[in-house]
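Narrative of activities, Objective 1.

The group set out to show that a structural description can be obtained from nothing but a protein's sequence at a throughput compatible with the screening campaign. Below is one input-output pair from the validation batch, recorded exactly as produced.
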Amino acid sequence: MGPHRIRQMMKAERDLARRRFRRQRNKNKLAKPGVHDCIIVLDHLKPSYNIGKIFRSAEAFGAKAVHLIGIDYFDPAPGMGAFKWVPAVFHRDFFSCYTQLVTAGYTLFILEPGKGNPIMADQLPRKSAFIFGHEEFGISFEPGLFPEIRPLTIPQFGKSQSLNVSVAASIILYEYIRQNGSFGKGSPDLQAAGQTNNPIYE
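Output recorded for this entry:
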């Protein structure tokens, strides 16, 4: 298969992803906040794969919303429909997102390997917002300009010291729920654990 054909296929897939996004974006405008006050912030992530997966985790853990910085569209297909249910807030730049969340009383955290306290050693406030940067380039802003944003790390014991961003988001959401969640309230899966034949994981 030649380079020209590969480019054509990639463009076709992007166009398809944009159409999926537009369809679900209209439904997303009716989405209601989850049962927990935590927020996920996605800073210039790639428009394929990871964002949809993060929406899926945000929906599963009852996150209040997902804020997206510098992201015009993404492929919602990996989220298995979750984009329709979790409110999405779009920002052109980080400062807009930062101002909105701080004004609403949120404590912001940056998730970076090897920096800050381990997630289970820090007390996560009820109104917590967790920032995840681009898969290759990290966050788009200079953290030194925002000293009140606290760094957190997910302890790792392998040599690569690298987690997929959608996996990292799921881990921090679980830890937040462990500290702040009302287990058994508002979650049929928790109330009826082990009483369903529906698959939980893929």
